[in-house]
Amino acid sequence: MMAKTLNVGMVGYGFMARAHSNAWGKVSQFFDTGYRPALKAIAARNGEKAKAFAQMWGYEGVESDWRRLIERKDIDVIDICTPNDSHAEIAIAAAEAGKMVTCEKPLARSAAEGLPMVQAVEKAGVPNMVWYNYRRVPAVTLAKKLIDEGRLGKIFHYRAKFLQDWTISADVPQGGTGTWRLDASVAGSGVTGDLLAHCIDTAMWLNGGIETVTGATETFVKQRKHATTGEVAPVKIDDASMFLSRFKNGSLGMFEATRYARGHKALYTLEINGEKASIFWDLHDLHRLQWFDHKDEGQLRGWRSIHITDGDHPYMSHWWVPGLQIGYEHTFIHQAADFIEGLGSGKAAAPTFRDALATEYVTDAVLKSAASKQWESVKG
Amino acid sequence: MMAKTLNVGMVGYGFMARAHSNAWGKVSQFFDTGYRPALKAIAARNGEKAKAFAQMWGYEGVESDWRRLIERKDIDVIDICTPNDSHAEIAIAAAEAGKMVTCEKPLARSAAEGLPMVQAVEKAGVPNMVWYNYRRVPAVTLAKKLIDEGRLGKIFHYRAKFLQDWTISADVPQGGTGTWRLDASVAGSGVTGDLLAHCIDTAMWLNGGIETVTGATETFVKQRKHATTGEVAPVKIDDASMFLSRFKNGSLGMFEATRYARGHKALYTLEINGEKASIFWDLHDLHRLQWFDHKDEGQLRGWRSIHITDGDHPYMSHWWVPGLQIGYEHTFIHQAADFIEGLGSGKAAAPTFRDALATEYVTDAVLKSAASKQWESVKG
Amino acid sequence: MMAKTLNVGMVGYGFMARAHSNAWGKVSQFFDTGYRPALKAIAARNGEKAKAFAQMWGYEGVESDWRRLIERKDIDVIDICTPNDSHAEIAIAAAEAGKMVTCEKPLARSAAEGLPMVQAVEKAGVPNMVWYNYRRVPAVTLAKKLIDEGRLGKIFHYRAKFLQDWTISADVPQGGTGTWRLDASVAGSGVTGDLLAHCIDTAMWLNGGIETVTGATETFVKQRKHATTGEVAPVKIDDASMFLSRFKNGSLGMFEATRYARGHKALYTLEINGEKASIFWDLHDLHRLQWFDHKDEGQLRGWRSIHITDGDHPYMSHWWVPGLQIGYEHTFIHQAADFIEGLGSGKAAAPTFRDALATEYVTDAVLKSAASKQWESVKG
Amino acid sequence: MMAKTLNVGMVGYGFMARAHSNAWGKVSQFFDTGYRPALKAIAARNGEKAKAFAQMWGYEGVESDWRRLIERKDIDVIDICTPNDSHAEIAIAAAEAGKMVTCEKPLARSAAEGLPMVQAVEKAGVPNMVWYNYRRVPAVTLAKKLIDEGRLGKIFHYRAKFLQDWTISADVPQGGTGTWRLDASVAGSGVTGDLLAHCIDTAMWLNGGIETVTGATETFVKQRKHATTGEVAPVKIDDASMFLSRFKNGSLGMFEATRYARGHKALYTLEINGEKASIFWDLHDLHRLQWFDHKDEGQLRGWRSIHITDGDHPYMSHWWVPGLQIGYEHTFIHQAADFIEGLGSGKAAAPTFRDALATEYVTDAVLKSAASKQWESVKG
What we know:
The structure is a homotetramer. Chain A is 33% helix and 26% strand. The first copy, chain A, contains ten helices and 17 strands. Chains in contact: A-B, A-C, A-D, B-C, B-D, C-D.
């Protein structure tokens, strides 16, 4: 069967643009999808860098303005890989132009900013998706399957944390390329919107909605030099964020994210304790799922470390042979594969913009609770 | 040097009495202390069981009432191993009789109940101690030493949890021998006073005082049969308890305890992230300390799993040779050794009753916050 | 700088051809090499499959005979990914035609077969390399660096094993696509040439030459059906192979490979114990290196689990950010990058054909020893 | 039921005498055995040290000569904890005097020396046992049970190693207290009789007899000062020893012991691969058993880390509660419990002297093979 072409227009050329470009470029070699992505063009203000990026990744052309990319007839999907403060404007314009839109997470800097994005893509009726890539770690996808099959029974506890240590030094600047995540005006928030958002997206996918939260945030380094202006200014993002929650299904949640956990680079962990079984996973060994099954024979019960590399594990029949692990970048390839498959099947790949908006309501509630020192209900 | 004799009078014959008796009996074979404990007598209402216990552990005699034990001239220390609801009465009476008093944790069912105990031992001027045994896991003691030496630098995060799964079944009764911990009138609270209390005691020892908390508790199984009366009654203890906190040193805390974490039997874990280094420890592998040191050479930085069995590790020169691990019961032997050493040196072994009262103030605040849904200040 | 083009001609379309094609295709997006590989053509007898493979991987054309591929003027490098029995013929012809040659491991079915290959490439003076990819796992490359810097001191022990379990069932056939590794006429030997060869290549790279060996092999399943003929025939390969050795540097070696280790899919492990430090690595968690350094402070000595994802780890500055792991396929990309870099620098990427011949001498000695029940000297 | 008394006479006061004394002293508090050991007397040449030891451990008396201990009517069992070179003389004399005899491992310095010991106890008809304590690690005992139940099916591979690093320094002396294990005249051999003997004893218990071996030994430090004479003399023990073997059941074995494995203190590991399941265990985490069961559902297969602390695990109902680990010393308590139980049941606790002699035949064969450079058959 002849695959149709899916023309991709990329906005941005940073870290995430690299991960996405790699995904669009590799997906057809490992997944027999109905569409074959063509890396059509990249839009960015810095022409030199955009050109170099385009050449390295095989984009046919470069546009100096994302508006022009959106105007082009030969582009099917706009992939947004810019900092958070431009997601809304680009996404809405793209949707209004009838383009499919995929957007790097988080959807926006707040639910208020994200809601019009959802409305725009839904009004336009265009396929849309947010790149919460960790749903597509095969171990996490397997966890979802096990939960949906009822193997954990009633859920009592959900725990997640995302620990990093890259901003401990007071010398890390805020703002600018590479450090815009420390600039509240660009990023919206600190670890809440960056890292906790990942934890929340996965949590609600696996364990359903979150009803109420009580949280606290802290900014350990109070002021930092701005990378572009050179000015020393108060830091307005949260360096650390934590919250307790109650899920709709009656289970309790504990969540934490920080960039001040010495020794951890990207340690996203999650654990779910159910009546019948428990699951643990962590990003530093993403190719393993820890599984405890109470129905195992008593004397032989123990946590199993499942090496998620067998052909009967999610996505893994597309890769190598049992025992040979994949890594971080593959999660994006899986997401691209699912997006494309969704185009054929008509069943949208999750999380859609609307799904991702639910996460915005939770991060909003966490930040509100941190300020109010009250339990807050999650809106939406 | 001839060791003096320390005559021990035990109250209770349950699980903890076994652990304590073992400690008093073994300590002189491994630690060159100034006093040699003599297992003098055990007091308990059930004469048959007390007699059997005395015979097995080598107690010279049995008393049917703890009051008589306290009256005896030949008893130096009263060791309280009864359920929580009798700690205060026995301890106060013992102190007033001029006995040294050691008491199984928690000190009492609340700070209000514990305060008179503290006042009694201090007024009497008798040596006193609460058996928060996990301070004497050699790995935890080493953690304390490292922190006190400033090796972690400024502390950002403290995390602790204590996970069990033994009450998931609705068939577990409340009340009675072995299950009195599910009876709020006897235990005071559920996991908060039982398991969280351990986490809090260690946390404040390692990281200083806790100022404010916001918590939540849950009782998953709403009613249970009472073991002695047979009556089905509402369960008044907390099955799960969690809280966020701020320490006096500016660090953030996350704490959790539950008996509904399938797959975990006694998984007490703690982690501390400092500017310069981090520490992790868990009770299921109590003989290891995980250590990350940022001053290690960059390319070789990693978490070290230190096998705490060398002669230069706390307490370990008293045991076997490097590589050979000790277990749970040894923590009590260490505590007995320190208590005895304190008698000689005049420097009381911690935690004293007053130290343990501080934990009561925190558990009180957690329970209050769970009810008020507010952040609460820790009294005391 | 404009990269030159390196025209690749692939022979074969099986598992290894996939891994190599992926490497040639990706290398320029992550490594700034002087040459940009162009996937020019693939040669294979089965035209349909070759065509499908070419289309999926972006090869411009297909040749039905590898001889025609070699004749083409527009091909720079011949990459041999066929079963072992055709390596020699293809490699020698390619070298004689002046092509660069890269060959999947093992070089040949024996040293006798491999020697003319070495002579051919050396006589022709063409760049050549054997794809012993595990040298390019960043953790293993780091191990090499640490050893070369003298950080382990005098070496006492080297241990390696490669454990799989995919042929335990007597229903697995011998011969044919996918199972030619069980057919001695095609594979040469069983696990000795397949898995032990990896262990030996790495071992000699890290620890120098092997002088003498004593080994034993076993064939647990004595006869199997042939996949193509359907005939049940004696199995002539070794299912398991193990040997003791003495290295030239005075250290002792223990090696083992098997396809009968239930629970292990591709568990290649290696450990080196030196006077000053020790190293452990395993393929199931290939992104970690275990490191023990005796010069660490006594009370804090422990095995470090180094997460090999930092920019200062070999190859890793080319990938993502700290904490995000890569996988199996990346080892081939690294090898392609080094091969290309070697073309520019004139310093050939190892292992060359001659390097790989050294491994053949060891596997020959192991098989000879298994038959003679004597210690055998390694030739070469 | 009234327990009878078992009067123990100890020979020696070193490390092993401590471990044994602890076992005799604790066993009745945790195991409801028919006999209650009484620590009657200890015999040793050094009167001061013996007296101190007796006082610490509660022995009633001291004898300056083991012969006098044997002559005493009030001693039931002679427990031999002296260096290897005196095992035979003491054991034979004790047996001839009609005493029960327990002997620290290895039985003797060679099978030739051990055989008369076996003959003596068997002729006298006295209960006898060798303290190969690792059989009584609960995880290892569970492994034995699982194998005997046929859960592993046909066995393909057995692997064991015992790694230490305490003699790497050339400054460690040979001979004398604490270092007699480096003096061949006292110890018989180096790691072969000391550490490999443990591996072999467990291996034959779990996997049956060993038929043939090929081995190699090495002495890395060629000469050392003698601790008592001060003379620098050639080292005659083996520092490292390794061998390949074939078991009677057709499985292959790999064994290794060394005192030159930097980073390992007492890392005894064993792994068994069967058709249906596999087992792994190591002494540094002795409270865990790793278990892989092929009949687990495909997508959920993984190595289980079983925390051997539940009441349904061997010996564990006698200790604490699930989740709380025991340590090294408990293995001796278990062995004492089994010895005593054997006195009541008439079924001797293994390994008997005869069982332990089988290990001597294997270590003899390994040393013979190391010298002959041939495969050697195991006698006996």
